[in-house]
């Protein structure tokens, strides 16, 4: 039986918001804590993916460190999980080139994510010269780098949100065509779908909570102080429907989003389901309801905020750099084995 190897990545987007936390990072910590001791766990801060769109160098460097401190703050233990920056392991880029020689341009052009990033509705509009000019090769081939990230470690399982499922399917296909040509060298990864928890913006609850929203009140960060959490929730857009709170994502998106947040940030087992949450909030004014959500969020995030501050500031960050250096070293050792097999099979 093959050992389980779990790999996932997140872009260095600075301090995560509640959407990143409930949609990805909380799940990673859970996977770590429930994994058999012989499973290999790798969580990578994918800075090479980040540069597919323009980045300010100073801000990028800072964002990587904030994300690393955040991974530790949510409970990823660098003894148990290999935490590292993608660019610290040159084999990601090397294997990407090799896989590029197998990857199908036709398959890549059907990926929905880069199309939405460059703002074209369908591949037909790519015959428009203006769209073609905007399209960077790196953004187009992003899924090939993602394939390299995964197969480099022989990952058997990749926890991702539903939006990434298409890319993992591509990775399987791409690794499979490599194996078809050169023999069974690469492990084909399986997707572990995150239980869908789409957190919506506090300011505009029809859109998902996102760091790209220019309004900082639209999202709660895992490092927010109790005062900031309360202020953001007090300002959250709800509605003027009279009577008790109720769950109706179409008619009452703001209230429904806060009910979801309350549910998922409450201690496990507090509620059986969303109806249970609604029942618990009967008789509360909207103001009191928001205060209740703020209280629960504050209690949940308090230890995370504390350990974020500790991880980030300790010895002016030298401890953080040490964690990364150590993680990268372990990652390079796993990667090197795969590269030997890959090159051997290819005659390189
Ligand atoms: P952002 O939208 O803030 O740029 P990313 O696209 O960098 O966030 O997403 C990082 C991870 O967080 C992904 O796994 C993504 O699925 C998850 N995620 C981001 N926003 C949300 C959200 N509002 N609700 C649930 N999960 C989210
Ligand atoms: Na995004």
From TrEMBL:
Q: Which PROSITE patterns match?
A: AA_TRNA_LIGASE_I
The record's Gene Ontology cellular component field reads:
mitochondrial matrix
Q: What keyword terms does UniProt attach to this protein?
A: Aminoacyl-tRNA synthetase, ATP-binding, Ligase, Nucleotide-binding, Protein biosynthesis
Keyword ATP-binding belongs to the record: yes
Identify the InterPro entries for this entry.
aa-tRNA-synth_I_CS, aa-tRNA-synth_Ic, Rossmann-like_a/b/a_fold, Trp-tRNA-ligase, Trp-tRNA-ligase_bac-type, Trp-tRNA_synthetase
MF GO annotations = ATP binding; tryptophan-tRNA ligase activity
Q: Which SUPFAM superfamilies does this chain map to?
A: Nucleotidylyl transferase
EC identifiers of the protein: 6.1.1.2
Under CDD domains, the record lists: TrpRS_core
Gene3D superfamilies linked: HUPs, Tyrosyl-Transfer RNA Synthetase
Which PANTHER family does the record associate with it? TRYPTOPHAN--TRNA LIGASE, MITOCHONDRIAL
NCBIfam families in the record:
trpS (TIGR00233)
According to UniProt, the name of this protein is Tryptophan--tRNA ligase, mitochondrial
């Amino acid at each position: 039986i093959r050992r389980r190897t779990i790999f996932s990545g997140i872009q260095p987007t600075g301090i995560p918001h509640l959407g990143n936390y409930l949609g990805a990072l909380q799940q990673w910590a859970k996977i770590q804590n429930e994994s058999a001791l012989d499973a290999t766990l790798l969580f990578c801060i994918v800075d090479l993916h980040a540069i597919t769109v323009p980045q300010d160098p100073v801000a990028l460097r800072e964002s990587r460190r904030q994300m690393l401190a955040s991974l530790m703050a949510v409970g990823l233990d660098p003894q148990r999980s290999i935490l590292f920056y993608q660019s610290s392991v040159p084999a990601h880029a090397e294997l990407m080139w090799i896989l590029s020689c197998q990857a199908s341009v036709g398959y890549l052009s059907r990926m929905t994510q880069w199309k939405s990033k460059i703002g074209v509705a369908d591949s037909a509009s790519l015959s428009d010269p203006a769209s073609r000019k905007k399209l960077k090769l790196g953004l187009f081939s992003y899924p090939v780098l993602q394939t390299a990230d995964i197969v480099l470690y022989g990952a058997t399982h990749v926890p991702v949100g539903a939006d990434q499922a298409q890319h993992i399917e591509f990775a399987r296909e791409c690794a499979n065509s490599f194996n078809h040509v050169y023999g069974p060298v690469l492990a084909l990864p399986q997707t572990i779908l995150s239980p869908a928890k789409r957190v919506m913006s506090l300011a505009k609850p029809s859109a998902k909570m996102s760091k790209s929203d220019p309004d900082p009140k639209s999202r709660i960060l895992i490092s927010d102080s109790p005062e900031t959490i309360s202020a953001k929730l007090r300002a959250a857009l709800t509605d003027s429907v009279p009577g008790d709170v109720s769950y109706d994502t179409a008619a009452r998106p703001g209230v429904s989003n806060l009910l979801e947040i309350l549910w998922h940030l409450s201690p496990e087992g507090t509620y059986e389901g969303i109806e249970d949450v609604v029942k618990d909030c009967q008789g509360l004014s909207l103001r009191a309801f928001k205060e209740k959500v703020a209280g629960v969020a504050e209690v949940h995030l308090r230890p995370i905020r504390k350990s974020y501050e500790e991880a980030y500031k300790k010895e002016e960050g030298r401890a953080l750099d040490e964690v990364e250096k150590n993680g990268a070293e372990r990652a390079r050792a796993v990667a090197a084995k795969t590269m030997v097999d890959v090159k051997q099979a290819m005659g390189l």
